[in-house]
Design brief:
TIM Barrel, eight-stranded parallel β-barrel, globular, alpha/beta, two-stranded antiparallel ribbon, 12 helices, about 325 residues
């Protein structure tokens, strides 16, 4: 396992303030991180279009990271991936994630997002990366609870359409020899094992359709996040190390009652402050030989991000397991 690394998205300063990839990498390195996961939607730190066509620019990016003492774990297109399979029900909410000329136009949003992902495939190849982090988008999430009743055919059609939207992107990543790692996340059509299975079948077990494993989202869904690794370790190619807790009350449970994050029964926490059994997770990854990055994604409704970032690198490093090269009972062998 490589790392610790940190996803820069939650630590970027407000959009009206200046920043740079160099300053963010130097900051991450000073806290003990060895890698950075780079969001591709903020031109202050990364120019996706330029990276997709210019090896010289990509070499400059790699040099900046090297000089700061970090590597790139993955590029991220979480925001753009959400729009690859956008549904009209979410158009207003998704408008801020795309250029103004795509506002209120589902077709334009999908087209723009597809081009963003295709550029990300080329940029990842030029940066010599092997994995990429994204979301699947949501054609069906508004029908996740089966009331009013939903026809089975509606679900089948949605996954067929989802596959049609993603297949050319998967093929482009295959040509670039980069795995797409979908973060299985509530709000996405791919949010658990069953939905990933259904998508995988719809894209004919495409070799580039893989998983970004984030146990926090599984805890909030009350899913067996350790057993999940047993079932899907062959497809897990990226890892967000993020903590969470779920404490249902007499007034709210899984759905949260539209409460703010701090008042929800299920909420994200800084590493070590939640309920995730990271020792079991890192043990499972060691058992199956996971060799990807361990990337801090910080989202906490209580702790300051600076403290979360400072505590994250040593927390991850202390959970790394150096796998043994001998049997514990070798001393008794004849």
């Amino acid at each position: 396992m490589k790392g610790p690394a940190i996803f820069l998205a939650q630590f970027l300063p407000p959009s009206q303030e200046e920043t740079s990839l160099r300053s963010m990498c130097e900051w991450a390195s000073s806290l003990g991180y060895e890698g950075v996961q780079i969001p591709t939607w903020d031109d202050r730190i990364f120019d996706l279009k330029r990276a997709s066509v210019s090896q010289r620019y990509c070499d400059e990016v790699l040099s900046i990271c090297h000089d700061a003492g970090v590597q790139i774990s993955e590029l991220s297109t979480h925001l753009q991936g959400q729009l690859v399979a956008s549904h009209a029900a979410y158009t207003e909410a998704l408008n801020p994630l795309c250029p103004a000329h795509c506002s209120d136009d589902v077709v334009a949003q999908r087209s723009w997002a597809r081009e963003q992902l295709l550029m990300a495939a080329k940029a990842s190849q030029k940066l010599k990366l092997t994995t990429h982090a994204t979301f699947s988008g949501a054609l069906l999430w508004h029908r996740v609870y089966p009331w009013p009743q939903r026809p089975d055919e509606l679900v089948s059609q949605a996954f067929t359409q989802l596959a049609d939207l993603w297949r050319p992107i998967l093929d482009a990543f295959d040509a670039a020899e980069v795995d797409i790692c979908y973060e299985l996340h509530p709000g996405e059509d791919l949010h658990d094992g069953l939905t990933f299975d259904r998508f995988l079948a719809a894209v004919d077990d495409h070799p580039r359709a893989n998983i970004l494993y984030d146990p926090s989202h599984f805890l909030l869904q009350q899913l067996d996040y350790v057993g999940f690794i047993d079932l899907y370790h062959d497809r897990i190619k990226a890892f967000h190390v993020k903590d969470a807790e779920f404490r249902p009350s007499a007034k709210a449970g899984l759905y949260g009652g539209y409460a703010s994050w701090v008042d929800r029964p299920g909420r994200f926490r800084s590493l070590g402050d939640g309920q995730i059994d990271f020792r079991a997770i890192f043990s499972k990854f060691a058992q199956y030989g996971y060799d990807g990055w361990a990337v801090l994604e910080w989202e906490c409704c209580l702790k300051h991000p600076d403290q979360g970032a400072e505590e994250g690198a040593p927390f991850i490093r202390n959970h790394f397991i150096r796998t043994t090269d001998r049997s514990f009972d070798d001393f008794s062998a004849r």
